Amino acid sequence: MEKINKFTLPELPYDYNALAPYISEQQLKLHHDKHHQAYVNGANAIFEKLDKTRNENADADMKAMLKELSFNIGGHLLHTTFWENMAPAGKGGGKPNGAVADMIDMGFGSFERFKKEFTMAATSTEGSGWAALAVHPCIGRPLIMQIEK
């Protein structure tokens, strides 16, 4: 069987202390090195179980395995996106411009309204959930999504 790649923990695009005082070095290390790594390890472990099941032509609880795989891959992808969209003070953030600003204005009326709705979505997400801005490809409309386990 051909060698199959595994998920790996991406390096942060900034130092662990770069997001202080908003996220401390300790918090960032915990979330990147422990939590995010756990999603990577979890996804790779499920792939190993799936490969073993397939190689042995054995039966498995596919619903449970695929649910766990989806959870871990989702956690990995969300954290990767999160790290890529964070920036040290003075090197990002603020009001967007260009196509993103136009899409937000079209969908929400203003950046201020978007921030209000996004904050409400994020603070009302249960447990270890996420709020995310997405654009639906079929209708070209921006939407705020709550992503929960």
Offer a concise description of the structure:
This protein is mainly alpha-helical. It has helices spanning 25-55, 62-85, 98-108, 111-123; strands at 130-136, 141-147. It folds into 2 domains: 25-85, Helix Hairpins, CATH 1.10.287; 98-147, minor pseudopilin epsh fold (3-Layer(bab) Sandwich).
Structural commentary:
With 149 residues, the chain is mainly α. The chain has two domains: 25-85, Helix Hairpins (Orthogonal Bundle), CATH 1.10.287.990; 98-147, Iron/manganese superoxide dismutase, C-terminal domain (minor pseudopilin epsh fold, 3-Layer(bab) Sandwich), CATH 3.55.40.20. Helix content is 53%, strand content 9%. The protein is built from four helices and two strands. The chain has a two-stranded antiparallel sheet with strand order 1-2. A hairpin with a 4-residue loop joins β1 and β2. α1 runs antiparallel to α2 (62-85). The radius of gyration is 19 Å and the shape is globular. The two termini are 33 Å apart. The mean pLDDT is 93.
